[in-house]
Amino acid sequence: MTNRCIIIPAYNEEKNVGAVIRNIQAMTDADIIIIDDGSADATADEAKRAGAYVISLPFNMGYSVALQTGYKFADKNNYEVLLQMDGDGQHPAESVPLFFDMIENGRCDIVIGSRFLCANCYRIGLAKRMAIALFRFIIRVVNGSEISDPTSGFQCMGRKVFTIFTHDHFLSDYPDTNMIIRLHRLGFQIEEIPVKMAENPDGRSMHKGLFKIIYYFFTMFLSIFIALISDNGNSGGKER
Amino acid sequence: MTFSQKIFSIIAACCLVVVIIYLVKKGKLKEEYSWMWLLTGFGVVVIVLWYDILLFITRLIGAVLPTTTLFIFGFLFLIFLSLHYSIKISKLTYQVKTLAQKISFLEAEREQGPIPHQKISEIQF
């Protein structure tokens, strides 16, 4: 069996992280690594108690840095396959084996769990639906392919993909549509599988507040533009 | 430019240069950041001593008054300075991030030992 790991960025998830870990443990024997993003609560303790390996960042650095920490750790420890999922319980552990199968059987380089490939799987508001439709359209025009859920953080990838994300010039505050475009331009095969995601139990979101939404769109469009004017989606930035 | 204006400008520029050199000497300002301030100080002295340069630049950029030229270049200098600091802050942010990640790896290994699959391979050896 290949070396598999599951990385879970978590910020103030003491209520959910234990159950998330136990659900995963029931489905797979992959190493579970929690990236505690400077939580103020007992997220790290709960995760350790549930049997996960915990990497605690000294202060809150944001979702993308927590993810990159996981990629770096997986690279450092020679994992072959990496799955990333949320620590709030939205992503169902039942889908985990299917993700691993897709990568290990060589069907693609990266698998994205989509909320929209099955009927009535997930309900979203009008504004979010319009934003997702816009990003789908951009991907269709730029990549010439269909991605139904470009903002899904439930993803599984092989080593050659996640090692790319360890480089700082691939670090984006919001790794969504921009990363899909960059990976496609680098020649990676991207597939989606239907996933029934739960509603966020606390109603928290990374995209709450007008400023954050505006900043999200600005970052996304700038990042897509940079990918389009760069060779093969690689911005060519050097490591700091 | 009147004589008193010249004297005031030269004293101000000299004070700036002295303060910058003092800060570098005391280790409160890195040489890396001192050059642009020293250049500003010397630039002011040059303009005061050769006022025709300022008049020439004013004609060159199409400004009416020399004071407009000074304001434009002062504004451009501040924009450049802000951009310079934005680049520096970005670089420092990346460095802090990398340090934080390395510390978190070391801390995790110190508290929890190596990751499970490595423990298994150690036992097999």
Task: Describe the model.
- The complex is a heterodimer of chains A (240) and B (125).
- Chain A has 240 residues and is an alpha/beta fold.
- Chain A has a single domain (4-233), classed as Spore Coat Polysaccharide Biosynthesis Protein SpsA, Chain A.
- Chain A contains eight helices and seven strands; from the N terminus they run βαβαβαβαβαβααβα.
- In chain A, strand 2, helix 2 and strand 3 (53-56) form a beta-alpha-beta unit.
- Chain A is globular, with a radius of gyration of 17 Å.
- The model of chain A has no long low-confidence stretch (mean pLDDT 88).
- By secondary structure, chain B is mainly α.
- Chain B is 87% helix and 0% strand.
- Chain B has five helices and no strands.
- Chain B has helices at 3-25, 31-49, 51-61, 66-112, 116-124.
- In chain B, helix 2 (31-49) crosses helix 3 (51-61).
- The radius of gyration of chain B is 26 Å and the shape is elongated.
- Chains A and B meet through strand 3 and helix 3 of A and helix 4 and helix 5 of B.
Mean pLDDT of chain B: 88
CATH 4th-level superfamily of chain A: Spore Coat Polysaccharide Biosynthesis Protein SpsA, Chain A
Spans where pLDDT lies below 50 across 5 or more residues of chain A: none
Biggest sheet character of chain B: none
Distance between the termini of chain B: 85 Å
Q: Biggest protein-protein interface? A: A-B, 21 and 17 residues
What oligomeric state do the depicted chains represent? heterodimer
The biggest sheet of chain A amounts to: 7 strands, mixed
Q: Any idea of the CATH topology of chain A?
A: Spore Coat Polysaccharide Biosynthesis Protein SpsA, Chain A
Strand content bin of chain A:
5-15%
Mean pLDDT of chain A: 88
The secondary-structure element order of chain A is: EHEHEHEHEHEHHEH
